[in-house]
Amino acid sequence: MNQRTLLIAGGVALVALFTVSNTFFVLPQYRQALVTQFGNPVRVVREPGLQLKIPFMQDVRFYDKMMLEVDPPTQEVILGDQKRIIVDAYSRYRITDPLAFYQNVRDEQGAQSRVAQMINTSIRRVLGAAQMSTILSNGREELMAEIQREVHERAKDYGIEIVDVRLRRADLPEQTSASVFQRMRSERDREARELRAQGQEIAQQIRSRADRDRTVLIANAQSEAQGIRGEGEAKAVQIYAEAFGQDPQFFSFYRSMQAYRAALGQGDSTLVLSPDSSFFRYFNPPVSGGK
Fold first, then answer.
1. What are the pLDDT digits (tens) for 55-68?
2. How many other CB atoms are found less than 10 A from the CB of residue 109?
3. pLDDT of residue 1
4. Dihedral (CA of 133, 137, 139, 145) sign
5. Residue 102: CB partners within 8 Å, gap ≥ 6?
6. C-alpha span between 149 and 164 (Å, rounded)
7. Mean predicted confidence (pLDDT) in 197-217
8. What is the pLDDT of residues 1-23, one digit of tens each?
9. How would residue 290 be classed by pLDDT, with cut points 50, 70 and 90?
10. Which residues, including other chains, have CB under 8 Å from residue 87's CB and lie 6 or more apart?
11. What is the DSSP letter of 73?
């Protein structure tokens, strides 16, 4: 076998290998394919495994069976109550008809652009008739379900199934948020002042009642104390009278001792009295022959 024969055999082998590689293709489990012939769709392949196509005449376009995500740009929406909000949504979709998908949007990039446009249009329509209170309450789920149904019906013509549409956030514009925050702060300050004034009024009423009750309690206690003290003093006088009545001379001596204590108990006291004064009779020596 000469060199020329070897070159011819090698060329034939390469052509055969190239032909075989363009005749077979492998379809993974998670993908589906659309076979086109000179740019025209021929058939849809969904079964995974080794597949055939006409070499050099047919091409294969692969599409995912898995869910894909589309993230529309944020937009400002005017609600039914004329309030403005910034809406940031996202969606998940699945390619269900590769032929319709290819004929309408060609590829995933075209699909994302078209679905994002449909989502934003539906959001403006649905939220444009809703109230802010509905969006901030449980009614938000119903609004999103309505948006999903609407987008799903429109996307079916493109071979797309809309699995879910959600709001990532729905916020007031920055200027509106600042205005609302300032208004809420002013309202809370006003409520705080009212509550503080009410608290001070209630505190003053409580203090007034406490002072009144204190005055009444003190007056009653003093009145009761004076009554008890008067009864005690009267009883003491009666006891003294009964005791001293039994020995008047001792009573006179006891009273004189009390008078001495009162008059002479202070060290700086000075008395000028006659020595034979009756005040000092218990200091004088007893008269002889007397008792």
1. 888 999 999 999 99
2. 9
3. 54
4. positive
5. 34, 36, 41, 61, 159
6. 9
7. 93
8. 567 777 777 777 776 677 777 88
9. very low
10. 74, 75, 76, 77, 123, 127, 167, 169, 170
11. P
Query: Which amino acid is present at 290?
Result: G
Longest dimension (CA), the chain: 188
Which single residue is written with the structure tokens 């300032």? 182
Gap between the Cα atoms of 34 and 62, Å rounded: 7
pLDDT number for residue 291 = 42
CB 33 within 8 A of CB 25: yes
Determine which of 98-112, 144-158, 229-243 has the lowest per-residue pLDDT on average.
229-243
Given a cut of 60, whether residue 146 has pLDDT beyond it is yes
Q: Which of 83, 86, 90 is nearest to 167 (CA)?
A: 90
DSSP codes joined into one string, 31-56: EEEEEEETTEEEEEE-S-EEEE--TT
How many other CB atoms sit within 10 Å of the CB of residue 64?
A: 13
Rounded CA-CA distance 247/235 in Å is: 19
Residue 264 CA to residue 271 CA, distance in Å, equals 9
Place of tokens 């998940």: 92
- The neighbouring-strand residues paired with 27 are 49
30, pLDDT greater than 90: yes
Task: Give me the pLDDT at residue 255, please.
Answer: 74
Cβ pair 79, 125 in contact under 8 A: no
Distance CA 222, CA 73 (A): 84
How far apart (Å, rounded) are the C-alpha atoms in residues 167 and 151? 14
Reference 65, options 91, 28, 94, 100; nearest CA is 94
Q: What are the C-alpha distances in Å from 238 to residues 114, 182, 225, 233?
A: 116, 82, 20, 8
Of the candidate ranges 173-187, 240-254, 259-273, the one whose mean pLDDT is the lowest: 259-273
